[in-house]
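Onboarding guide, step 5: your first structure request.
Type a short instruction followed by the sequence, for example:

Predict the 3D structure of this protein.
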Amino acid sequence: MSEDSLNKLEELPLEYFLSRHEHEPRELTIYFDGSAIRTYGSQQNSIYRGGKKYSQTQYFPLLAATKEGHLLLAKLRSGNVSDATSLAEITKLVEAILERWPHVKLTIVMDAGFNEPHLLDFLEEKKVNYVVGYPATSSIKSNFKDTIKAAEEGFKKEFGEPKFKGKAGEKAWQKEHTRLRALPPMSEKEAEKAMNSRFTRWMYGAEHQGNNWEGSRTVIVRIDCSDKGTDIRCVSTNMTGHSAQAIYEDYYCNRATIEFTIKENKSHCRVPLSCMEYSANRFRFVLQSLIYILMDELRRLLPSSKTALTLATLRNQILLIPAQIFAYARHIHWRLSSVHPASALLINLNKKLQARTA
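The system replies with structure tokens like these:
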């Protein structure tokens, strides 16, 4: 496979998504994320990556999906690539969308690994909204110390001192966790609900001057206080017209969409990346993404009560049905069991597919 051919194949998911829309949508939210794929041989560009999170030889592909789960990008990358170096891929995708849909209100959501000044500058230049994770640095904690202190005092006023702070608190929490797990199911559920109810959340947005930023940007600080202490998460954004809570919870927290898409792509559409040459594995990864798109399109044709099925359930309960196949000169006839619970659903699915391709 030539480099040019691979690049064109990697553009297919986005081209397919754009072609499925007759009219330009008013809004579009896209989630980007990187994901590790462990390798077990001497594949080209599969590189060892250390740290607590990885510590393995791997590839590190980049994926992008809409908040509805439509896959837009699946690009295989070397194992030691960081999300901060994804400017070229993100730039290319954003420009392709804006070229086709110049008036769409585009929003990009990413985790803290993508928070790179040049990328934020590009999105601002293109008038694209973004919500990007930002590390809770010592500078952030210093600038927002009054807010953090107020959040901690608010928790103490409502619930008292945290029960599980520090190393001694970790042991106490583990002991309590073990005790709850030994309770009868209904009692355990009520006890955990009571323990988790000792929780407060504060949201605060303000201008902040980040490292290597030419100017200040809005940073939203989320402060969660519980019996384990204070947990701080931050995002930088250029969105306006929304509350800090709405930006964090309705946009940033919905990154679970891309994580679910990545999980299904890796687990249920898996194509072994076991070739020695990197170009061959890139081609296989494109095939994997196309498999995911086809399976996802089938899922979207199901009745509304079943569109939340996983691809594994779709395959095992609906597609893997015993059938008799009769091949004739002018047609193929297939016969399904009349008592199989998914026969009627599969026939209806087939009719919808025929209507779409007519």
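Each response can be followed by summary notes, for example: The chain has a mean pLDDT of 91.
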